[in-house]
Amino acid sequence: MFQVDPNVTLEGRGVRLEPLSVGHEEALRAAAADGELWTLQFTSVPEPAGTLAYIQAALADCARGIRVPWVVRELAGGRVIGSTSYHDIIPAARRVEIGYTWYSRSWQRTFVNTACKLRLLEHAFGTLGCSVVGWRTDIHNSRSQAAIERLGAKKDGVIRRQSQRRDGTLRDTVMYSMTDDEWTGGARTRLEAALLKGTSAP
User: Which SS3 state, helix, strand or coil, does residue 173 take?
Assistant: First the structure.
């Protein structure tokens, strides 16, 4: 039976993904303050006063079996620097999506995103036995689309007016996915090479 354990900690390549808890409230608030990320149009980062509610909503989804949320901790300094999740979990299709991902501005465009995605993909395909892993992003978020494509994911299409943005406008959502065959057929090797290049760069 396909089941995602919400209590699993994923560690390696300089990061640790710890199961989200209310005890992370202060650390998450500080991480989001690095860049005032809640002001960005395309993210789900909570405002400082909404951090606890953000955590509680994620944990409620976790209790329903549709999301597994983590905080991201960088191991060198020990700080919480963001959050990520599996979500829209479909056991019958052996499918999870990776999303609700954000990092403190200081850690964007570093090794962190690649390291986290590698651990999440390794766990999804190697441990859980996923058939496919998905991603979704706002059609206007070109940076996110480029990052997903660099992972080796394929664009599945666009769902028009799929959800509401923070400002009340309706967003078209771009869907991506990676199959287990694509993971073993070269995506993992390319990601490992990209991480090695990124962490060794000055």
Answer: strand
The residue type of 47 is E
pLDDT number for residue 40: 80
**pLDDT of res. 200:** 33
What would the mean pLDDT of 122-129 be, rounded to a whole number?
Answer: 97
Q: Please tell me the chain's helix, strand, coil percentages from 3-state DSSP, rounded to the nearest 5.
A: 40, 30, 25
Distance, in Å, from the CA atom of 156 to the CA atom of 178, rounded to the nearest integer, reads 10
The residues facing 87 across adjacent strands are 67, 97
CA dist., res. 33 & res. 29, Å (int): 6
**pLDDT (tens digit, 9 = 90+) per residue, 138-171?**
999 998 899 899 889 999 999 999 988 888 889 9
Contact (Cβ atoms closer than 8 angstroms) between residue 47 and residue 85: no
What 3-state DSSP class applies to 72? strand
86 contacts 97 by C-beta, under 8 angstroms: yes
Which helix (DSSP H) or strand (DSSP E) does residue 16 occupy?
A: strand 15-19
